[in-house]
UniProtKB/TrEMBL annotation:
PROSITE patterns: MFS (PS50850), SUGAR_TRANSPORT_1 (PS00216), SUGAR_TRANSPORT_2 (PS00217). It comes from Phytophthora infestans. Belongs to the major facilitator superfamily. Sugar transporter (TC 2.A.1.1) family. This is Hexose transporter 1. It is a multi-pass membrane protein. Its main location: membrane. The keyword Transcription regulation does not apply. Residues 46-536 form the Major facilitator superfamily (MFS) profile domain. The chain crosses the membrane at residues 42-70, 82-102, 114-133, 139-160, 172-195, 201-222, 297-316, 322-344, 351-374, 445-469, 481-502, 508-529.
Length: 575
């Protein structure tokens, strides 16, 4: 993530005794003292407090699924489909803006100030949604919360990475991803618990105020990133911040390491736009943006935003049952994130990402296949009006303009939408746009198992590795800007997938949509197999050598980092 110097790389965390550094280096500069600080209680407190922003990120993206059900009812705001999409889109649009603006804020004001601002935005936005008296006030609250999400998603991984020793950096950054999924799971359970409560959507959207206030209060006592302070020439403040984070440990060697990195940056100082066009940064930024884009194009937020709807489409027609099953699926996303945290410093970033992506591909194929079987087993219907020609309930509910209606006389597919159903039989509770009765539950359970397994594979690697890798691979002089660009790519991709999902289902059927995501995952797997380097156990400064030396680390062996420095990759001697 920061610019390299000639420091020998630290020993792998699995190694009981670090090997002595090599006598030669790829660079001509003198190697500073090899120093690997131990984690302190303050570091863990800092990580936990920062990761509350991840929890808020997950909570506010996950809670909307259940809240929309209540907001669409007459007891809420009776939102139309277009208004419902606007409620979701406003937060995603705000996140895109927040991610872009945070790059400027991180450089000008510091990481700590941006996190404090995001906490304040979460508090104001959640409070406004809780007391919203109109659709526009609700949109305003979602927009404010979205800006907070964008700021947090960009800055928190950066702040944690810059405060962490290399041997546990990946694990600590991944904790933020764990709390994102934890927030999503908590939100899904809360949705189910409050589904039958009068005004339940206000509690769902407003309870985010509590963790936001806790984070704001905690960060009043936490220091700024020492690297940011040193980059602004505030050496005494950087020393004090590093002392606070490291406790009683010796910090002179680490501070000298940071200063050496900054000095190297000054020697090559250039306009940020010129630097972004340099080949090493272009390679790093291309990889970072590809990872963030791929994370979303694998279809993850179709499951998070439309989980209950997908489960209803699978044949679990009762809304309460679907919401609780959606919470079970979200639990898979949460619990398997900890598998990724456990493996990130053992298996490494590369193996974990590729293994996760392979599992995502296979489960998306299985998910599409299960939906295909469900369609074959679907109830036959008689299409009427604009829905004439539709022969199964499954195809009927997949069409945006049609709904399934069962009656004593016939199973019908009739024109209409959820807000204004056609007159006749379909004004009764049997009218549905989301699900079909299924005489055989085999395909339904297969879909549920595939969803659970899909999230297990995704959460263990692709859920957290794009954030972890992006927090490591950029030089200091463009780090904040590059990270905000890659995070914005994530949010734009999120917006693209989230608001084409229903249209994609309408055009390709559910099985076609999930097979499309599987093809994208397979393409991503092939690309990353060639381009993704291993960064496990490396100093932030040393990771830059990978990109600067134009070395392809497609199959970096364990030997590459085992002795504390890069030795070989694809048979090419590097350092």
């Amino acid at each position: 993530m920061t610019e390299t110097n000639s420091t020998p790389l630290p020993a792998s965390p699995q190694q009981s005794e670090p090997s002595p550094p090599p006598s030669t280096s790829c660079d001509d500069a003198t190697n500073p003292t090899d120093y690997k600080p131990a984690p302190s209680p303050v570091l863990y407190l800092l990580t936990l407090c920062a990761s509350i922003g991840g929890f808020l990120f997950g909570y506010d993206t996950g809670v909307i699924s259940g809240a929309l059900v209540l907001l669409q009812s007459p007891q809420g705001f009776a939102l139309s489909d277009l208004q419902s999409e606007a409620v979701v889109a406003s937060a995603v649009g705000g996140a895109i803006a927040g991610a872009a603006l945070s790059g400027i804020g991180n450089d000008k004001f510091g990481r700590r100030q941006v996190i404090l601002a995001s906490s304040a935005l979460f508090t104001v936005g959640a409070g406004l949604m809780a007391v919203a008296g109109s659709f526009l006030e609700l949109i305003a609250g979602r927009l404010i919360v979205g800006v907070g999400i964008g700021c947090a998603s960009t800055t928190i991984p950066l702040y944690i990475a810059e405060a962490s020793p290399p041997q546990i950096r990946g694990r600590l950054v991944s904790l933020n991803s764990a709390l994102i999924t934890g927030g999503q799971f908590f939100a899904s359970v809360l949705d189910a618990l409050l589904a039958d409560t009068e005004g339940g959507w206000r509690y769902m959207l407003g309870l985010a105020v509590i963790p936001a206030i806790v984070q704001f209060a905690g960060f009043l006592a936490l220091p700024e990133s020492p690297r940011h302070l040193a980059s602004k020439g505030r050496e005494d403040e950087a020393r004090a911040a590093l002392r606070k984070i490291r406790g009683d440990q010796e910090i002179d060697a680490e501070l000298e390491h940071i200063k050496a990195e900054l000095q190297g940056s000054k020697l090559e100082e250039s306009n940020v736009w010129e630097e972004l066009r340099s080949p090493p940064v272009v390679r790093a930024l291309s990889l970072g943006c590809f990872l963030q884009c791929l994370q979303q194009l694998c279809g993850i937020n179709t499951v998070m935003y439309y989980g209950a709807t997908i489960i209803q489409m699978a044949g679990f027609t009762d809304p309460t049952t679907a919401i609780w099953l959606s919470a079970l699926v979200s639990f898979s996303n949460f619990i398997f994130t900890f598998v990724g945290i456990y493996l990130v410093e053992r298996a490494g970033r590369r193996l974990l990402t590729l293994g996760s992506l392979a599992g995502v591909f296979l489960t998306l194929v299985a998910l599409g296949g299960s939906f295909f079987v469900a369609e074959i087993e679907s109830v036959e219907v008689k299409g009427t009006g604009a829905c004439a020609g539709i022969s199964t309930c499954f195809d009927c509910v997949a069409s945006a303009a049609c709904g399934y209606c069962s009656s004593m006389e016939a199973n019908l597919c009739m024109p209409g939408d959820a807000a204004s159903p056609s007159l006749g039989f379909c004004t009764s509770p049997e009218w549905t746009f989301d699900s079909c009765p299924n005489d055989s539950n085999g395909a339904s359970w297969a879909i549920l198992v595939a969803l659970f397994t899909y999230l297990a594979f995704f959460a263990s690697g692709m859920g957290c590795m794009p954030w972890t890798i992006n927090a490591e691979i950029y030089p200091l002089r463009v780090r904040s800007f590059a990270l905000s660009v890659s995070t914005s790519v994530n949010w734009v991709s999120n917006l693209l997938v989230s608001f084409t999902f229903l249209s994609t289902i309408n055009a390709l059927a559910p099985y076609g949509a999930f097979w499309l995501y599987a093809v994208i995952a397979l393409f991503g797997l092939a690309y990353l197999w060639r381009e993704l380097p291993e960064t496990k156990g490396l100093e932030l400064e040393d990771i830059q050598r990978i990109f600067a030396d134009r070395v392809k680390y497609s199959a970096l062996s364990d030997k590459s980092t085992k002795n504390g420095h890069i030795q070989e990759a694809k048979g090419i001697s590097v350092c």
